[in-house]
Amino acid sequence: MNTTNPFDEIEQFLGRSPFSGERTWGRDLRTADIDVAEYDDEFVVVADLPGFDRDGIDVRTDDGRLTIAAERDAEREDADRRYLRRERRHESVTRTVELPATVRPEDATATYRHGVLTVAIPLDALDTDEGHRIDVN
């Protein structure tokens, strides 16, 4: 009687064979966890990208969207090592956010520190017809 472990089935479904750490298909593509905030003067997106090098991160604005993409490769195989499990591999992360119509993407800034990417895009001041209040003395 051949019994299977339900966790082995989950690992196979996810493309991993139990304890081997090898994928049954090419890359692992997932999304980055983000926070999005809109302030009076800027639109800010903060993305968790731990373990990525600054050179492997691509941030673009196009057609009303902000796209963050990052890639990294695991260290090369070492013939002298005898791996019991190997999970570190090539990884791609991507995330797209719709931008408000009032952003100025040409003035956007991006910083990457301690695995956290922060993108700040200035907002145009909204034209208001509220006028100006004049104090009465």
Automatic annotation (TrEMBL):
CDD domains: ACD_sHsps-like (cd06464)
Gene3D superfamilies: 2.60.40.790
Pfam family, one: HSP20
Signal peptide stretch: none
Domain SHSP: 25-137
Recorded family membership: Belongs to the small heat shock protein (HSP20) family.
Designated name of the protein: HSP20 family protein
Originating organism: Halorubrum trapanicum
